[in-house]
Structures are given as structure tokens and as C-alpha cells.
Amino acid sequence: MTTARSVKIAPKGMGLNDFVAMKEGYFAAEGLDVEFDWKTFRGTQSSWKEFDYFQRPQDKPYTESKDDVIQGACVWGTICNASAGMGKVVADAYGDSPWAIFVRPDSKIRKPEDLKDVPVSVGLRAGSHFNVPYRLERYLPLENIKTVNTGGFGARLKALLDGEVEAASLLPPQIAMAEQLGLRKIIEDRFHTLWWVPDNTAPETLRAYLNALDRF
Fold this sequence. Notes:
Layout: E1 5-10, H1 16-23, H2 26-29, E2 32-36, H3 38-45, H4 60-63, E3 69-74, H5 75-83, E4 88-89, E5 95-103, E6 119-122, H6 127-136, E7 146-149, H7 153-161, E8 167-170, H8 174-180, E9 184-197, H9 203-213
Parallel strand pairs: 1-2, 1-3, 6-7, 6-8
Antiparallel strand pairs: 3-9, 4-9, 5-8, 5-9
């Protein structure tokens, strides 16, 4: 009898595929004994505005605990992390995720041009951050595109609802939450995601993980 390979996965808010693969038994079918890294997951939902790069929740498996954790993030963030020495990029596959900027329903902001010099809530060096200048540059000069580091998925939506910021860069599942709450969407698009893993991740473990996701 083959022993299942143990692997730790840090799902993200936009990573519904990990939860489905676990529930449907796809990981087990590929010989993986999967443990979700809930500590990292909760950290990526919360604020990390007081943390520098290398100190964010998603950085700690590489800089502190040295756990063998599979994570996914935006293409830009993943490449930044890997080039900074936090693991390596998985070049075998990519994901696709929605992105949008929302404001409160009483906001005077109605179109992308209205975001001139308005700080947009982001999580620095992550998809919520890189999407803002990349998408808004067609409407505004770069010097008029402003961001403010709030941190994780849930923290940005909370900051918007609490009136701490005028606009927030959101990803799933907070996009759906914002729509249900009646917040106004100013701009939306889609972006690619990549996985990154520690340097010592076994190739066969990574292949089994991707095979499980490919069962969808």
C-alpha cells in the first residue's frame, strides 16, 4: 500500500479550487494527504499594513516557519516573492481571477478618471496592488494613481465599509460580498495567478497537486 504524501496548502480567498478538491476527494485520489494552513489563510484575510515585505502572513512559511507550503497569488506577486528568495515559481499552470475597484454607494466616484489622486486600498506587492496602476494607467497618469496599504482580502472590504478609505481593490470572494452589499463597481478586469513553492518541494508532490486541480 502506497503511503500518501503529506502536503500543506495555504488557500486564498480566490482559491475555491483547493476547497473543492479537498471536499471531492481529488487530493486523496492523487495520493496526497492535504493539510490546510489556516493560519496563513486567516492572515491573508486580515490587515497587514503594519508589516513590511518578508513579514506578511504569506511570507512567513518561507522566512520563519520554513514549512513546505503551496501557495497561489497574482503573477506579479508570485514573481516578486520568488525573485526575493521566497521559494520558486511553478511554471506548469496558471489560474484566472476577477478583480475590481469598489466604492461606497454614496461616493461621488463613478468612473475610473474620478480616482485621480484618490488612495485605493490595496495589499502591497499583491494582486490587489499591481492591478491598480496596471488597469488605471489607461485613464490616469501614473503620478495621479495612488494606493494605500491596508492588507488582506477581508481587511480591504472592511476598510471601505468603515469609511477608512474611499476606494478598495477587491478580489474574490469580497467582490461578491461587495456586490451583495450594494457597493459601486468602478472598474473590473481579470488577471492571471501563479503558484509558488519552497525550493525543496518534491516535483512529484507538486505534480499530484496540479493533477488534483485538473480533475475539475
